[in-house]
Amino acid sequence: MLELYHGGPGANSLKALLPLHEKGLEYRSHLLNLIEFEQHEPWFVKINPNGQVPVLVHDGRVITESTVINEYVDECFAAVPLRPAEPFGRAQMRVWTKFVDEYFCPALSFLGWHAMIRTAVSGLSKEEFEAKIARIPLKEQQDKWRESAAQVWTPAQLDDWRRKVRVSIQRMDKGMQGPWMLGQQFTLADVSLFSMLIGMPQRYADIVNEKDSPKVVDWYARMMERPAVKAVLAIPRPAAQTLAARQAQSGAR
Ligand SMILES: N[C@@H](CCC(=O)N[C@@H](CS)C(=O)NCC(=O)O)C(=O)O
Questions:
Q1: pLDDT digits over 165-183, tens only?
Q2: Whose CA is nearest to atom 10 of ligand 1?
Q3: What residues pair up with 29 in beta bridges, in sequence order?
Q4: With helix as H, strand as E and coil as C, how does 96-128 read?
Q5: Are the C-beta atoms of 137 and 76 separated by less than 8 Å?
Q6: pTM above 0.85?
Q7: Mutation choice for ligand 1 from 30, 53, 72, 101, CB with most ligand atoms inside 8 A
Q8: From the CB of 52, is ligand 1 less than 6 Å away?
Q9: Residue 118 and residue 147: Cα distance in Å, rounded?
Q10: Among 200, 93, 103, 218, which Cα is nearest to 161's?
Q11: Is the CB of 8 inside a 6 Å radius of any atom of ligand 1?
């Protein structure tokens, strides 16, 4: 029996959701609202001491880290393979998934948090906010919540993260080997990259567009046609709904 704790189709949660759907696997879905800090509640921190999603539970055993989850799922349920069969292809795939985890995702994440967290927590008093922060197990995540709510990141930091996002897209465009990142086979490299790219043609139109990254634009259109992608994108994203409601409230004030 498979269970997935996730925040809906965005970033690392999207990354772990996609292979389950590509493989047609049944799983019990546990949807958390990240803006309501549900991932830091004691019951969830017992499951993942980092207080983060996604988390896969397979026959009662817990697996964390989206990239690790995806390789695990592919090993256990190999009927629809999402990794190249030969070692060189698998190495190439891992260069992409590592690049996403260490370079692309962090830059994109800081920009996203800077854009949304202040509004997301605007309804909380200082004391309520600090009480929420006190429950976050990772010091780095406490800092990220506090700093993004206080908008302390400098224009130079924001520019550098934006530069990294542009570099990531350019690297993808140059590296595209066929209809999918590694050529003819759809792999976990596509899954990882798409989990970051989702919504970017709209939100980062100056970076992801026909002129500057034509292969990425074509690949993104192909991704959006995949039945598994359509199914995953239909799953609600509670944090996005909460954020939209708070944005509407703060716009009305
Ligand atoms: N390295 C972890 C990172 C997980 C992660 O950053 N999760 C985010 C959602 S994409 C999260 O739970 N954020 C809420 C928080 O940290 O409070 C992975 O790849 O699974």
A1: 999 999 999 999 999 999 9
A2: 12
A3: 4
A4: HHHHHHHHHHHHHHHHHHHHHHHHHCCCCCHHH
A5: no
A6: yes
A7: 53
A8: yes
A9: 9
A10: 103
A11: no
